[in-house]
Design goal:
By secondary structure, the protein is of the alpha+beta class. The chain has one helix at 13-24, and strands at 5-7, 41-43.
């Protein structure tokens, strides 16, 4: 938390699909990370 705000990073199905498609063509052990460009904030009470 920063200044009373908490950031959540949602991800759309399209973003996940764009990540999976090329990764599925080259299977290996790895960590993949995806999130939408804009992360909404909300006030934490």
């Amino acid at each position: 938390m920063f200044g009373g705000l908490s950031r959540f990073h949602p991800v759309s199905v399209r973003t996940v699909a764009e990540l999976i498609r090329p990764a599925a063509g080259r299977p290996m052990s790895r960590v993949l990370n995806a999130c939408d460009p804009e992360a909404p904030t909300r006030l934490v009470s």
